[in-house]
Amino acid sequence: MEFVVIGAGAVGLLTASLLKEAGNKVQLVTRREVQARQITDHGVVKGANRYDIKATTSWKSIPPEAYILVAVKYEGLETVLPLFQEQAQTNPVIFLQNGMLHIEAIKKLPQKNIAAASVEHGVVKLSDHEIRHTGQGIYKVALLKGEERVFLPLVSLSGIHMEWHADADRLLFRKVLLNTLINPLTALMKLKNGELLTNPYAFELLERLYRELADAFPEMEELLPFNEVSALCTSTSSNTSSMLADKLAGRKMELDTILLYTLNRSQKDLPILRSLYQLLKSTEV
Ligand SMILES: NC(=O)C1=CN([C@@H]2O[C@H](COP(=O)(O)OP(=O)(O)OC[C@H]3O[C@@H](n4cnc5c(N)ncnc54)[C@H](OP(=O)(O)O)[C@@H]3O)[C@@H](O)[C@H]2O)C=CC1
Ligand SMILES: CC(C)(CO)C(=O)C(=O)O
């Protein structure tokens, strides 16, 4: 099968390398020429393995039937979404972002078949063409518009585990809730995910935040029981959450698409979450 991955950050490089490893035709689209040249010349490097993948900044080379995976952050969508108005009209597209603030805009794109995925891998970008795969996981995919059958062949791909989910809102909101619980606390306290369980002050705040969310969203205890939150902190215990990684690197954090989205979706006031959002927002670059 043929794939184009737009955005060669941590998730884009990982996705491209997994697809290539599984024997697919893969191309990367970067924002910067210098990164495209580096990838084309030196390959994508994951651990001891090198994957020869062509990279370009041009959308003109996107084959009409290729699956497009969009791996830019929420902020990057501001420049990517307008391009979809003119380009890649026939391609099925999958968006890989955390958060949900972009979902309504994506559904309005002219492309007929659009899906979104929750990425459950852990990955860190080491340079413009190198990554470290820190947590083995899967891609959970759900339809946003169009025909399910267009995406179903992806579920049987070997090497990259993609799981199909019937309800996009449920899939994406569960991930938003996980990120709402883990990301702001790790970013503010500068803790690894696992330390949310072992640091008693952080753990108490995690439990209080969980209770606040469970009180606001009646579906929460069934959608995301607390033991699944702690299981994720354990399975990603040595991870630096993406929000902490952004904060440490002086990059913009995905505060609005995750935390503000949750605040706005709730009918009730969420004072703990609102305070965490304001604390992080006030220190943002
Ligand atoms: N990292 C992780 O472990 C996980 C991340 N996620 C989610 O995946 C998404 C991507 O995260 P991540 O890969 O970590 O982010 P990164 O910041 O590592 O990568 C984003 C990439 O998008 C590129 N980009 C921005 N604008 C454009 C454009 N117009 N055209 C092409 N490329 C563009 C950036 O290029 P440039 O460098 O030139 O700015 C950068 O390489 C986020 O929503 C994140 O929350 C989900 C699960 C795990
Ligand atoms: C699930 C979690 C918290 C793993 O680190 C994540 O998605 C992130 O860091 O954004």
Radius of gyration: 19 Å
How would you name the oligomeric state of the polypeptide chains in this document?
single chain
Counting structural domains, the number is: 2
Name the shape in a single word: globular
Distance between the termini: 40 Å
Report the top-level CATH class of the largest domain.
Alpha Beta
How does the helix and strand content classify structurally? alpha/beta
* Share in β-strands: 15-25%
CATH architecture of the largest domain: 3-Layer(aba) Sandwich
Instruction: Report mean pLDDT, rounded to a whole number.
Output: 96
How is the main sheet built? Answer: 8 strands, mixed
How many H/I helices?
A: 13
Number of strands: 12
* CATH domain topology of the largest domain: Rossmann fold
Which hetero compounds are present in the coordinates? NADPH dihydro-nicotinamide-adenine-dinucleotide phosphate, ketopantoate
Strand order of the largest sheet: 5-2-1-6-7-8-11-12
Assigned CATH superfamily of the largest domain: NAD(P)-binding Rossmann-like Domain
Protein name: 2-dehydropantoate 2-reductase
GO molecular function: 2-dehydropantoate 2-reductase activity; NADP binding
Catalytic activity: (R)-pantoate + NADP(+) = 2-dehydropantoate + NADPH + H(+)
Organism: Planomicrobium soli
Summarize the structure.
With 285 residues, the protein is of the alpha/beta class. It has helices at residues 10-21, 33-42, 77-84, 103-107, 148-151, 168-189, 195-198, 200-216, 220-223, 226-235, 242-248, 255-265, 271-282, and strands at 2-6, 25-29, 44-46, 49-51, 54-56, 67-70, 93-95, 114-119, 122-127, 130-135, 139-145, 162-165.
